[in-house]
Amino acid sequence: MDSDTQTVATDSPYLRSDEFRRWLAYTLLGGFDPAALAHEVVRQTGEPLHLVEAEIALAQASPYLQGAAPIRERLTKTRWVLHNRARLAALVPDALTVPVLDRPDPDDVLRHHYAAHRPAVLRGLVDDWAARSSWTLDGIAERLGDTPVRVQWNRESIPDYEVQSPSLRTSRPFSEIAERLRNPEPTNDFYVTANNAEDNREAFEPLREDVGEIPGILAPGSPRDGFIWIGPRGTVTPWHHDLTNNLLLQLQGRKRVRLVASHDTPLMRNSQHCYSDWTTADLPAGPAHDDRPAVHEVTIGPGEALFIPVGWWHHVEGLDQTIGMSFTGFVWDNDFYSGYTTFGEL
Ligand SMILES: O=C(O)CCC(=O)C(=O)O
């Protein structure tokens, strides 16, 4: 280790600041060309070129940065592996079609979707459930009356309502929620979501007797513990991925779901936990282009369930007033949560 290079100081307090040095390390490790970087820093800060070049040389000579280089190389290699998967998946003409399976054999679901890590729409799984006919807005309103229900409220007041969802959580008598739901105007301002599930366990208990089983796919008894989703036309659940495999079931109304394969995670602008910085308009359905991943699109209606593989990105829009459930209690290994550690900034 050369101690001289570590102690060289430039004459610019800004270039010597921790903030600039953190940014410089991040940018150099990201693979930015050092010469181009020097000119960019001069352009943005007005600092003299020779001082900027000296600071960049100091960073490049730093054993701290050199020690991090293999991590960058491993990341680059992982991205290469994932990009190859994306190119191979795009080779077939129906690459963006989400298959629809009618009353599927659980073994086919396991073989071709769960273990194969590919989404599918599953039909005919819940035809015998009482909830198929009893979970209408009027039916639920009658049973719940004024029972307080946890709901995401005032979502339209902040752009990152999903990330900030704990701060938007409130309780309202179900009768008040039902009244808002009866207004046909589309809105994303309120939504009973899985985030409210724990708080709503007792409130929704009377409804659960109408929930049946999905034999061979969900563990016996587990559907009753599923998450309940109730929202107006116009809800938008922004791009994110789950930490488990998930089955999203519609009982009333349609949802349009866009999906991006987990192998395209490097393109998902994932700067925090499971969220993406892409907006609704940024990623319409279609093949990959420029820095955008291939986007699948499917609409699910009453009685249909979408299997969303763990780590697959999804974006969900309520095309109608919707009532549905989601489940994670599969009969197959679904504990991908306990190995997940990256809850913060990425
Ligand atoms: O139905 C929705 O609005 C979102 C469902 C979802 O994203 C999920 O279950 O992870």
Report on the architecture of this protein:
- The protein has 346 residues and is an alpha+beta fold.
- The chain has helices at residues 3-7, 13-16, 18-29, 34-45, 49-61, 63-89, 106-114, 131-134, 137-144, 174-182, 197-200; strands at 100-102, 120-123, 148-152, 169-173, 227-231, 236-241, 246-252, 255-260, 296-300, 304-308, 313-318, 322-327.
- It has 2 domains: 3-85, no CATH class; 94-327, Sandwich (Jelly Rolls), CATH 2.60.120.650.
- Strand 1, helix 7 and strand 2 (120-123) form a beta-alpha-beta unit.
- The chain is elongated, with a radius of gyration of 25 Å.
- The strands form 3 sheets. The protein has a 6-stranded mixed beta sheet.
- It starts with a helix and ends in a 19-residue tail after the last strand.
- Residues 1-7 have low confidence and may be disordered.
- 2-oxoglutaric acid is lined by residues 194, 229, 235, 237, 242, 246, 248, 255, 314, 316, 326.
